[in-house]
Write a structure and sequence with these properties.
heterotrimer; A alpha/beta; B alpha+beta; C alpha/beta; A: alpha/beta; eight-stranded parallel sheet; two-stranded antiparallel ribbon; 16 strands; B: seven-stranded antiparallel sheet; 9 helices; 28% helix
Chain lengths: 445, 302, 238
């Protein structure tokens, strides 16, 4: 029997507005009466670091030899006020992800890997677990609107404190953890009844606005005797103002999460339609810092779509002091691995597509609270994977930096970059390749 | 984001020392607002038929005497400029709206900070302590006053971006918070004939109040209108020729404290700005409820 | 002999001359049972923020005057008394110990508090006990709107009135109000006041040192538990 598409190609013309995934989602909404909640970050294509290229050395610039000629990667976070800023060997940190969103062995693996390579991990919306503190040589402790598990002992055990105003996946939204992931242990840590759908606040309970934030940061410093750096994390939206306000409120460092940043659970519409991409966000943040003469004095840590050493190098070239990885770290540990394809298919997905982190049925044992599933994940093996991946990110960034003649990755600058598209040129404020033109800048053409 | 203070005198003693108390209150709020400071003081009402303008010049060597000569030519009388730092107050033998229009038309190099019979608005970038000193705030006597210390959020730190904002005669507004629908509202108000000098959200709120008052609403009605027409987070303190009012939005996250004794009514973002007032320890103190207008009025100015 | 004298003497700190950092540093050095003054008197706080925050010692601190934000924030074990008014976030995230305010307290009293007791003899304003996680709060006067918002566990006792939105999105905390409640928040309902609740109230009032208030005059409020798991028919509540 002849198939439709050879006999009648016109009959199978898919709509741009209503392709099959959109049809499926509309019908799901009609059946279930609730928005689609999922994990992962924005899946749609957005202008990103891929649209930028490095200008490697040739005649006018000279490269550095690999290995012998050093290209350093160290960075210090929190030099502004803290007695003990964070000294990292590499400019890549592990982003905040909660125990609850992730299994205990997954958190342990992140700590092991980060520590092996000389960088830090970050707690999430559930508090600090003993395993994470034990396995992370450097641990950043988040202060979120929910304050689940928050206590002064953990605050003092931390190496830095991160006041979370928002995250890239859902700027203006709060945490979310669905009932099947509120296990006994999670419920106890969060002081919640087991099995409920956790609703988190989107604003902090005891401060609103930068004038109050300044007072709150003051309290955090007093609580910890001015020892530890205080970071402020924002999802990228009105980034220019937010960065200036965070500086005025007294932040030691700013963690900027572009809209591509991942989440364990939130509404799909939130992930895809709120916030600005990481690419313009970095530029705005650096502008804001430079205008206050605070660039490199208040450090900028960028996250949201960091996948390779090229992304790392480009973020640094645009002015970031460091980057942070979340989704990429989970993938490095085995999330969406092809070996698990059959398992993913059993739960309605497939390897390379799985984003139902909110459901807690992850066959990789990473985004689950189920003891049996979590037991599949070996934290020692996971830790080694993280360490390997972090090393590759660093080596790749160094390779690119050396090719541009830099002896420290921080010496990468915007002038080392060109853009492939007009949007990327405008957003990153680097010229379109082969031209001097930066859209929006007078005098360039 | 900011600090707000307000003082309304009920006794002659407090009127005498209004400036001194205002200065003390303002200094308590400098941490909340290090970028700029401003005050509106209601004092020495101009006689009937005349009005008072507060003018700002960016030029430290501005020739205020020449301006007074021009004013005398235009309106008669012998107006004198009372100069404090970059500002000057002139009493003009004309109605406030005429005097103001004349200045805008003939002296575009000046900024009209306020117009009316009793109001004087002073605002400047820089730290509040410096502001108090520059403007000799401690000297003022008056019936009521509002003050503001600013930490700029979404607009630039400029003199014109500072509070209080005045968009009507003897009217001013200070604001702590952040509006979320001011851009569309600004367009609507422009079509109604209200003009704006900045891109600041507070100026839109001030324009909204001026528009409602111009259309005949009472101060209370105009403020109640805010609850329907303004979106966002706000604590407002409003001054009129004989009044003083406070309003918080219905969520009321931004701080506000009110206190009252037989001698004064005071409002501030933090209690410590009120604690500097005489008799504060015995004052009746409370935090205004969300979406409720609190207003005080004195006997009409003669 | 000398050790005893130190332990009963009162250590006076004048915040008009001593930096706050010095005071808090000294209080923190008493953690883990370290020796030092057990009784402290702080004068001229003048609205300072974060006074006596992060104390972790069984000591007594009396503050003469009014404090700003976050007084006694994250308190452990200490008894802190403010003889004046307190700004927002009094005893925020308190873990244990007791914090008492003679006057009024501003927004977010005992926000996210995990344990211990917080007493306000005057009024507390909006968001009293917001996101509380085990603290007990007793207010002699009234509380403002959105009190006990997202309150997880612990107990709030209000001898006066409560503002609008009481207990909005409440979990398992127990609320007792003697006066008028301007309005209840989402999923918060009045519940039966049984003998065990009267006993609980009596004990809380006694611990708070509040006499002359009859426990049976209170009404009890708590979660209807309809919003614990999302159902499309409740979409209107959100």
């Amino acid at each position: 029997m002849a198939t439709f598409d050879t006999q009648h190609p016109w009959a199978l013309r898919e709509s741009y507005l209503f392709p099959r995934p959109v049809i499926a989602e509309i019908q799901r909404a009609a059946r279930e009466g609730i928005y689609d909640i999922r994990g992962f970050g924005a899946k749609r294509r957005l202008p990103h670091f891929d649209d930028l290229l490095f200008l490697g050395a040739s005649i006018s610039r000279y490269p550095l030899e690999g290995y012998r000629e050093r290209c350093d990667t160290d960075v210090v976070l929190g030099t502004r006020f803290a007695r003990r800023p964070l000294e990292l060997a590499i400019p890549v940190t592990i982003a905040g992800m909660s125990f609850g969103a992730l299994s205990a062995p997954a958190k342990e693996a992140l700590g092991r890997g980060a520590s092996e390579v000389g960088t830090c991990t970050t707690t999430g919306d559930g508090g600090m677990t003993p395993e994470e503190r034990e396995h992370s040589k450097l641990l950043v402790y988040q202060l979120l609107p929910s304050r689940y598990g928050m206590n002064p002992d953990d605050l003092r055990k931390a190496d830095a404190i991160e006041v979370v105003v928002g995250q890239g996946a859902k700027p203006g939204g709060g945490g979310m953890l669905l009932g099947h992931k509120i296990s006994d242990r999670v419920a106890e840590m969060r002081d919640l009844p087991k099995g409920i759908d956790q609703r988190s606040a989107c604003r902090h309970p005891d401060w609103t606005g930068p004038d109050d934030l300044e007072i709150k940061i003051g309290e955090l410093r007093e609580l910890t005797d001015w020892d530890k750096p205080v970071f402020v994390k924002i999802g990228a939206t009105r980034t220019y103002y937010d960065v200036q306000l965070a500086v005025k409120a007294g932040a030691d460092a700013i963690v900027l999460d572009g809209m591509q940043g991942g989440t364990a659970a939130t509404q799909d519409v939130f992930i895809e339609h709120v916030g600005i991409p990481t690419l313009p966000a970095v530029r705005l943040a650096v502008d804001a810092l430079q205008e206050l003469d605070m660039h490199r004095r208040v450090q900028l840590i960028v996250s949201g779509g960091i996948r390779t050493g090229a992304d790392v190098a480009k973020a640094l070239a645009l002015g970031a002091d460091a980057v942070s990885i979340g989704t990429a770290a989970l993938i490095a540990m085995g999330d969406n691995s092809p070996e698990l394809d059959e398992e993913y298919r059993k739960i309605g997905s497939a390897a390379g597509f799985y984003d139902d982190w909110q459901a807690g049925r992850d066959p990789a044992g990473i985004s689950t609270q189920d003891d049996d599933l979590a037991a599949r994940f070996d934290p020692v093996v996971g830790g080694r994977r993280i360490a390997n991946y972090l090393r590759v990110l660093t080596l790749e960034a160094q390779t690119l930096a050396r090719a541009c003649g830099k002896s420290h990755v921080h010496n990468l600058e915007p002038e080392d970059l060109v853009a492939l598209t007009i949007e990327a040129a405008a957003m990153a404020r680097v010229p379109l390749a082969g031209t001097d033109w930066i859209p929006g800048i007078d005098g360039s053409e | 984001m900011c600090g707000i203070v307000g003082l309304f005198a009920k006794s002659a003693d407090i009127e005498e020392s209004l400036g001194e108390h205002l200065a003390a209150m303002l200094s308590q709020m400098s941490d909340r607002g290090p970028d700029s400071a401003g005050v509106a003081v209601y004092r020495e009402p101009a006689p009937t038929g005349s009005s008072k303008l507060t003018l700002f010049s960016a030029d430290p060597l501005y020739d205020w005497d020449a301006l007074c000569t021009d004013l005398a030519k235009a309106f008669g009388g012998a107006p004198e400029a009372s100069v404090r730092a970059s500002h000057a107050v002139v009493v003009v033998d004309a109605e406030a709206s005429d005097a103001e229009s004349w200045v805008r038309a003939t002296h575009p190099e000046l900024r009209v900070m306020s117009a009316g019979r009793a109001i004087e608005i002073y605002k400047e970038t820089g730290r509040p302590e410096e502001f108090v000193r520059q403007f000799a705030l401690g000297d003022f006597r008056g019936t009521h006053a509002l003050g503001h210390t600013r930490m700029a959020t979404e607009s630039r730190v400029t003199t014109e971006g500072s509070h209080p904002f005045s968009t009507g005669l003897d009217l001013c507004l200070v604001h702590n918070g952040s509006l979320s629908n001011h851009n569309r509202l600004r367009e609507r108000l422009r079509r109604e004939g209200i003009t704006f000098q900045t891109d600041n959200d507070t100026e839109v709120a001030a324009g909204y109040l001026a528009w409602r008052l111009r259309a005949g609403a009472s101060l209370e009605e105009a403020l109640e209108g805010c609850l329907d027409d303004l979106d966002g987070f706000y604590t407002f303190l409003v001054g009129t020729v004989d009044g003083f009012a406070v309003l918080r939005d219905s969520i009321a996250c931004k701080p506000a404290v009110l206190a009252e004794t037989d001698e004064w009514v005071a409002m501030a973002s933090e209690w410590r700005a009120i604690a500097v007032l005489p008799g504060a320890a015995e004052a009746h103190a409370w935090e205004p409820a969300p979406a409720v207008v609190y207003a005080w009025e004195r006997a009409k100015v003669a | 002999m000398a050790v005893e004298a130190v332990e009963t003497a009162v250590e006076v700190v004048d915040l008009a001359v001593t930096p706050l950092r010095d005071l808090n540093g000294r209080l923190h050095s008493l953690a883990g049972g370290a020796s030092g003054p057990r009784r402290w008197r702080i004068v001229n706080p003048n609205g300072a923020h974060a006074v006596a925050c992060g104390t972790d010692a069984e000591i007594e601190i009396d503050i003469e005057g009014h404090v700003g934000y976050y007084c006694a924030g994250m308190n452990k074990l200490a008894t802190v008394r403010v003889h004046g008014n307190a700004g927002p976030g009094l005893a925020e995230n308190i873990v244990s110990g007791t914090v008492v305010v003679d006057g009024n307290a501003s927004q977010s009293v005992a926000a996210t508090g995990r344990g211990g007791l917080v007493v306000v003899h005057g009024d507390a304003s909006a968001r009293c006990g917001i996101s509380m996680k085990g603290v007990d709060i007793v207010v002699r006067g009234s509380v403002g709107h959105l009190s006990a918002f997202m309150a997880q566990t612990g107990r709030l006792v209000v001898c006066g009135d409560a503002g609008d939105g009481l207990g909005d999105s409440i979990y398992e905390a127990r609320l007792y109000v003697r006066g008028e409640v301007a309005g209840l928040g989402a999923d918060c309902v009045e519940k039966e006041l049984r003998d065990e609740h009267v006993t609980e109230l009596r004990e809380l009032l006694e611990r708070a040192g509040i006499d002359g208030v009859e426990p049976s005059a209170f009404r009890r409020y708590g979660s209807a538990r309809r919003l614990y798991n999302f159902h499309v028919d409740q979409a209107g509540e959100y």
